Amino acid sequence: MDPLAQSLDFANHHANATPADIKQLCADVVKYGFHAAFVNPTYVTLAKELFANMPDANAKKTPVGTVISFPLGGDTKALKMAATNNAVSQGADELDVVPNIGLYLAGETNAFMTEMRDVVESAHMLSRPVIVKFILDPGYFDKEPDPKANLMRAAEMVRAAGADYVKIGSGMGPRNPTLEDLAAVKEAVGNSMRLKVAGGIVDRKTAEAFLAAGAHHLGTSHAIAIVTEKKVSSQKTSQKSEE
Q: What domains sit in the chain, N to C, each tagged with a CATH number?
């Protein structure tokens, strides 16, 4: 089994994902030894059932992740809290949540923080172990005079809100994350948080570079291509991908 695989979260957040697609996703997660399967909220229960019914003992321990308010983060706080609670009640083990970046950019940092804290509280309401990540799309923080400071400050707020991870990039933001973005977030939160990167990771070289720079996990819909080192077609890479 490729050691790199355990750092990859294999994702399918496509709008046209079918139950058959999720069945294949989960089978591939086990086949290649990926860390987790990430699906849209409607498929959390299905993914949990698929893993539970596989004969492989490791499959039964495989985390199922989902996204909340993805990819825009523009849902109301109440809706995010309800969606979070619902996802956990259905068995989600990891939540990648998009906060309201507009609040932060408008200088409404108290509201930005309050929303994240309340979402974290909702995730833990059922007393189930669950990992909460907040997604910061770095392109939204490219505001002069100091884009790096903007991103670092937002990352510090994610830490203060009680999240487990900062996730850098959604794959649907203004641009994909860079090694410089990862370095800035790592500088902001130190060793107190884990880091996930997603967006534009389509080959082994890119994946290994982010991991070597300090990322703990990578989100990608190209996990199989990464571990088999098969080139992703130009048509696929030219399209916006969720991860």
A: 3-238 (3.20.20.70)
